[in-house]
Specification:
By secondary structure, the chain is of the alpha/beta class. A hairpin with a 2-residue loop joins strand 6 and strand 7. The protein binds ligand IDC. The site of ligand IDC has 15 residues, from strand 18.
Length: about 475
């Protein structure tokens, strides 16, 4: 059982008045189930996750309604659905990509609310007009359910060598796994942030599964000192290995956007790191961070020249290919995932990168990921909780919508950045990396606190 602060389980009874409903939106006998969970609460505000499970016939659209029990409770912002409040009634309507619910299927939506006074839980829901008379399941006396028994072993101990199976990343038991972790900032600028204390904190306090090593190629990066950067990457690979975390080697191309500009450098670099790390279980190769201003065919051509170089040295490692429009599956260039689905890279054991910045990239990007997830193996190798500049205000609602979606689809992710850069995307406050305390909550930014909260929850990797 998941740890919950509050769980409200409302079961839609076999509905009275069902016969009055016609058309595909009717909920048949068998009804529905709503799991309402307050996932966090703070002074005057709270966040709730709402899981709507259709237990009746398939439906092609849904509207969920409930009543806020206290006049001071207000919807602030919702996600994965269209949310509105009128008086005390909150209405939630499924979006294009989650409006169809087969029997037994569920939609995960959520919202941030505000409250004055008490914050009681809603107990009655209707789905497509059918009353769901629910009963509240109170947490056991003493508060929360007991925490789950933590798994034994590090992420690499449990999962071993990874491979792509279907659209998922799978572990040694051939079962899908989601890796959740952090990206470094550019190692040419923030090497002081990657030391024994900080990487210990990432593994032990954050319980991170993954360290993404962002090696810029330009901007004073690899091109200025290939041997030096190759060796720095390898030492970070070893630091991740010693703590049982996966290491993602990111060839951080950004400007210029055509990865072919760096083709020869990529071949040299990957030949070297793949040979050196071939016997390790924990290395994933990301061959081009964010192609931009370049066609998918040019990216595919680059991939089909770099992947054989890696395979020659390390035949069975997972390789991740960047996508058009800053790894947006083309969406930021007015395209979409179909260009990849229709013309995939000619290689096996590969995934495609998707990146987002939550304050800039919202529902239409989530819709693309939802569609693409059943066709392509995806890994969110970089994302921010803020705007695409790496700065600006954190968008909590959009970030939560994204992470809930990725959790549901078992898509792995790495957050930009595990650093103390003076920008809101950084997890640590400026100056943190001058000291040795990476563990206490007061060194975290708002983004860092949110990500640490998400990443440190138990993984429950499947082992059989
Ligand atoms: C940003 C850094 C910023 C740096 C800039 C240019 O946060 O400090 O000055 O790069 O190198 C990306 C890129 C990533 C960007 C990040 C935020 O992959 O390199 O980092 N971002 O702008 N894609 C979308 C956003």
């Amino acid at each position: 059982m998941k740890r919950r602060l509050v769980a409200v389980l409302a079961t839609c009874a076999t509905a009275l008045g069902l016969t009055a409903l016609t058309g595909p939106e009717a909920v048949a006998a068998g009804g529905c189930k709503v799991d309402y969970t307050v996932t966090s609460q703070w002074q005057g505000g709270f966040q709730a996750a709402v899981k709507v499970t259709n237990l009746g016939d398939p439906i092609s659209g849904w509207t969920l309604k409930t009543t806020m029990p206290d006049a001071g409770q207000k919807l602030v912002q919702g996600w994965n659905a269209t949310w509105s409040q009128s008086g005390s009634t909150v209405t939630t309507v499924g979006l294009d990509w989650n409006r169809t619910l087969a029997t037994g299927a569920a939609a995960d939506v959520g919202f941030v609310g505000s409250f004055t006074g008490a914050n009681p839980k809603p107990t009655a829901f209707t789905l497509n007009g059918v009353a769901c008379t629910g009963s509240v399941v109170e947490p056991p006396p003493g508060g929360e359910e007991p925490p789950p028994v933590p798994g034994t072993g590090t992420p690499v101990d449990v999962n071993g060598k990874l491979h792509v199976c279907g659209v998922n990343l799978c572990n040694q038991y051939n079962r899908p796994v989601q890796l959740r972790g952090m990206s470094t900032h550019g190692i040419q600028w923030f090497s002081k942030c990657y030391n024994t204390a900080s990487v210990d904190a990432l593994a032990k306090d954050w319980k991170s599964d993954l360290l993404r090593i962002a090696m810029y190629v330009q901007e004073s990066g690899y091109e200025t000192d290939p041997a030096g950067f190759t060796s720095r990457v390898n030492s970070l690979v070893d630091m991740a290995e010693a703590r049982g975390m996966y290491a993602m080697i990111d060839f951080h191309t950004l400007t210029p956007g055509d990865p072919n500009f760096n083709l020869e450098r990529a071949k040299t670099f990957f030949a070297s790191v793949a040979a050196r790390n071939a016997d390790k279980k924990h290395v994933i190769y990301e061959i081009a961070n964010e192609p931009n201003g370049v066609s998918w065919t040019a990216i595919k051509s680059y991939a089909e020249q770099v992947i054989p170089v890696i395979r020659a040295a390390d035949p069975d490692a997972v390789v991740i290919v960047g996508t058009r429009g800053w790894s947006s599956l083309g969406v930021s260039d007015g395209s979409n995932e179909s260009e990849v689905v229709n013309n995939p890279v000619n290689a096996t054991n590969i995934m495609y990168a998707f990146h987002f910045y939550a304050a800039s990239h919202k529902d239409n990007y989530r819709a693309a990921v939802s569609r693409a997830a059943s066709r392509l193996p995806l890994f969110v190798t970089e994302f921010g909780t803020v705007s695409a500049t790496g700065g600006g205000a954190m968008d909590r609602a959009s970030t939560t919508a994204w992470l809930d979606l990725l959790d549901q689809l078992k898509i792995g992710y790495a957050n930009w950045t595990y650093s103390d850069a003076p920008e809101s995307s950084a997890a640590f406050k400026p100056g943190t990396c001058n000291g040795s305390n990476y563990s206490s909550s007061d060194v975290l930014t708002e983004s860092g606190a949110l990500l640490k909260g998400r990443i440190s929850t138990p993984d429950s990797f499947p082992t059989s």
